[in-house]
């Protein structure tokens, strides 16, 4: 489940996952807002942003592939940053070679202009 925190006019979004060593390998871990990925780390440790859907002014705070972690800060949080946030993990079963997606529950952040809920 993503952890979303309000910090001095910005929000911090943290996502961390666990994989079974020797049985699962990371393909990618993404933070999504309203079903649209905006921050992703892949199996090679490459990070990427998609600054659409109202999520701009993004800064990486932490990223890792072992364990998979994505932690970003969204500065100048506005009503456009309100929405449903979740983690999306894509991993490969090293025995069968098949890839799977795993989704966290949504965490809703509502910015009313003066406060976050």
Give an overview in words.
- It is a single chain.
- This protein has 117 residues and is mainly beta.
- It has a single domain, classed as Immunoglobulin-like, CATH 2.60.40.10.
- Helix content is 0%, strand content 56%.
- It contains no helices and 10 strands.
- The protein has strands at 3-7, 10-16, 24-33, 36-42, 47-49, 58-65, 68-74, 83-93, 99-103, 107-109.
- The strands form 2 sheets. Strands 3, 4, 5, 8, 9 and 10 form a 6-stranded antiparallel β-sheet that branches. Strands 1-2-7-6 form a 4-stranded antiparallel β-sheet, with no helix packed on it.
- A hairpin with a 4-residue loop joins β4 (36-42) and β5.
- The radius of gyration is 14 Å and the shape is elongated.
- 25% of the residues are buried.
Assign a percent range to the helix content.
Answer: under 10%
Q: What is the makeup of the main sheet?
A: 6 strands, antiparallel
Second rung of CATH, namely the architecture: Sandwich
Q: What number of structural domains do the residues give?
A: 1
Average pLDDT for all residues: 82
